[in-house]
Amino acid sequence: MGMGINMVYKGVHNVLDFLQNDFPDMDVIILYAEGFSELCSIRSISEAIATSSRTYRVVVLSSSSSSILFSFRLRFCLLRKTIRENAQSFYSMDSDEECSLVLELSENDPFFDEKKKLLRCKGFGPKERIHLKCSSAPSWMNDTVKILLQIAKIIQLNELELYFAEDDASVEFYSSRNELEALNSIVSLTDKSLSSCPHFHTNVLQGLQQKILDLISDFGDQSNMKGVLEKHHSCEREEHLIEWGKSHGVKTGLKIAYVEGAGRGMIAGKDLKVGDIAIEIPVSLIISEELVLETDMYRLLKEVDGISSETILLLWSMKEKYNCDSKFKIYFDTLPEKFNTGLSFGIEAITMLDGTLLFEEIMQSRQHLHAQYDELVPALCNGFPDIFPPEIYTWENFLWACELWYSNSMKIMYSDGKLRTCLIPLAGFLNHSLCPHITHYGKVDPSTNSLKFCLSRSCRSGEECCLSYGNFSSSHFITFYGFLPQGDNPYDVIPLDIDSSDVDSIEDKPVSNWTTHMVRGTWLSNNHSIFYYGLPSPLLDHLRRSRSTVMQTKTFLQGNLENELEVLGDLKDIFDDMMDSMGEVDLDNRESYTWDEKLAVDCKNLQRRIAHSVSTSCCTGINMLKNELHNCLAEDIVG
Ligand SMILES: C[S@@+](CC[C@H](N)C(=O)[O-])C[C@H]1O[C@@H](n2cnc3c(N)ncnc32)[C@H](O)[C@@H]1O
Fold first, then answer.
1. Confidence of residue 501 (pLDDT cuts 50, 70, 90)
2. Rounded distance, CA 513 to CA 12, Å?
3. Could you give the CA distance from residue 383 to residue 224 in angstroms, rounded to a whole number?
4. CATH assignment of 230-281+426-474?
5. Is 479 in the pocket of ligand 1 (CB under 6 A)?
6. CA of 325 to the centre of ligand 1 (A)
7. Above 60 in pLDDT, residue 508?
8. Domain ranges within the chain, ordered by starting residue
9. Spacing, Cα 256 to ligand 1 middle (Å)
10. 287-423 has which CATH code?
């Protein structure tokens, strides 16, 4: 039913109550604005309406030229609702013959409230049943996939991705990790449904699953992170290791080759599909604490107060490297003599890092390792030289073992439920990618007593097969792995030292769950409009609240605009100071630098780019705000 009402604007927060309580039957809303400031209110009203679980049709009538901007935004809100409406009408069907997919945000999700809010912004609830029925409409499949993906992506967000997505419904892409997790979660859902749906639905489900698999494949093809193979290197020792592995139960179709800039990597010997096992390692070939339990070294070390199983393994591996009778000699023989991680940066490279996050990370880690060595090793060598020969237990060898364990170990969940830090021969040749083929690999399969590395995206014959080492910043990768990942790393953030506790609560009730704040390169954001500026909303909201005790809304009121100006001015100062303290980056001489100096300048350049992007976005925002403020004041004078 359409109904025209003369709606009195009661403020953004009670618009929905107003509509639902006073006009429960209304489904078409006509918003009319004469001047600029009325248009600003309309935008806020329309945003509030867009969060409703009911569908309203909103029409904007305006005499102002700025209406184009708002109509665009409104159309966007409407579009989201219309897609959902259409899709639901395609899915509606006989309940007896129902086949549906249910996407549900778990109430145990640590970010349940934030994700629920984001789902609402997009017009979804925490539990959505999507009914599937092949429609005659050609777009039904695309519409269905679009909805499934929108929901799945939000459910699969991790903390950091959520921080940068919160309060901004326009975000469609969060990270490659998120994209792959979301797509794979729908593949699993369709798998489950295929086993329980009546057989006449299998075509629909299989069609849907194939569509998702095609999307996964397209996504992999688009990612520009394929390793270039260096054919002139010999991999004889590595091939021996593969043969040894296979003779002890390893199953794999992967080969080893040198990859430009990454050392050795694993290459698919044939086309591999989503779900295929790239490599399977029997537990008997995994190096974990189990292996040292029977040694004299273990019996001695377990008496040392507070020593961890990781430290015991590290000390064991220092000696095992030189043990000619080791069961793992062939594995130790393939390990690099030097790891070249941030932990072994020279003094020149460290000096270049002054003012960067990497400087702090490397210095703290080195201090920690030196303290650990000094506390433990000399005493062991003096007390038990037979077990800890001083010529093996040097600082250099200790650092080598630390770098080995930091850069090559994986945390594995064993069948007894215990998480163990392990070295895994062969799987240790898998390099990292921001768009990995393998995302889940940490659990022993009790039925085979082996560790399986299954593909979350396909890998063509001859292509390097990569996994994800984790969602780390580039400074973490440099410190502990010795490389800077290729491409945009969404986890490259600059944390801000802001205490949220006092401003982010009203009468002891938190208004936001974010207690720490950060920024990342604003080129990663697609919303640079006023009130967003490519910056994270939780940070902006926090700074707004700390600057003004008045409730802040995203409306074009003079007070709000003035507060925004101050917030952006403060942020800009912080990042301009950061750039000043880091100094310039000399990229012209990069080729003459040593390996560690190259990593140092690249990392410094990255942090500078992030700081510069934040400062530039603040500057653009300040200019936009000044224009709006000017318009606002002009309206007031005319009014
Ligand atoms: C687990 S090992 C992988 C095998 C290693 N490439 C080798 O030759 O032994 C981890 C190390 O590989 C290298 N690496 C892994 N992924 C990389 C990447 N994306 N880019 C550059 N180097 C990488 C780093 O040196 C890292 O410390």
1. low
2. 22
3. 55
4. 2.170.270.10
5. no
6. 28
7. no
8. 12-81, 92-222, 230-281+426-474, 287-423, 493-638
9. 13
10. 3.90.1410.10
Mean pLDDT lowest for which of 217-221, 252-256, 547-551, 630-634? 547-551
What is the gyration radius of the CA atoms in the chain, in angstroms?
29
Letter for the amino acid at 161?
E
- Residue 407 CA: nearest ligand 1 atom is 27
Q: What is the pLDDT of residue 8?
A: 36
Distance between CA atoms of 547 and 555, rounded to whole angstroms?
17
Q: What are the CA-CA distances from residue 519 to residues 31, 271, 457, 611 (Å)? A: 36, 40, 30, 9
Pocket test for ligand 1, best of 424, 432, 467, 598 (most atoms within 8 A of CB): 432
- Work out which ligand 1 atom sits closest to the CA atom of 335: 9
Q: How far apart are CA 173 and CA 150, in angstroms?
A: 9
- pLDDT tens digits, 324-344: 999 999 999 999 999 999 999
408 lines ligand 1 (CB under 6 A): yes
Which CATH number is 92-222's, of 1.10.3720.10, 3.90.1420.10, 1.10.600.10, 3.40.50.300? 3.90.1420.10
Mean pLDDT for the chain? 85
282 lines ligand 1 (CB under 6 A): no
Q: Is the CB of 263 under 6 A from ligand 1?
A: yes
469 Cβ inside 6 Å of ligand 1: no
Give me the percent of the chain exceeding a pLDDT of 90. Answer: 67
